What we know:
The protein has 138 residues and is mostly beta strands. It has helices spanning 19-24, 81-91; strands spanning 5-10, 13-18, 31-35, 38-41, 44-45, 59-66, 69-74, 96-102, 109-110, 115-116. The termini are far apart.
Amino acid sequence: MKPNGVFFVAGNRLGVLETGAYLKQHLRPDIATQSGPMLVINGRLHPRFLRYSASRKRRSGVGARDNHTAVFAVSDDEVSFEEFGRLFRDDLECRNALFLYGGGVPSLYAPSIKRSGNILPMGPMIGVFARVNYAPVP
Length: 138
């Protein structure tokens, strides 16, 4: 379902943009993934989402609160795109958010919050880790 979008990290900046807007910026990202549909576009829910849609699945997504804060979410229960978009917009305060995966069992491996869902079979995967700057060895 279009518009779809791109989650990207470029240096110290990250974001979620509709694909056309992303292409116009001519970014040189360190990482990027395209998916869709967009859940939230500039603070508004995707225009084709239906309030009481019968399409309910477990879903995962990513949103951008600002140029330095990404928020990832995985639903525990089946939700509609509209409900998932509202989570990102209203509760997680993301002006832009992107659907990543759904229909099967989206997983999140995060031992710090006691979450270690089944990661096989594996589809798209995003890893989050602390950036470490090492001094050059003399």
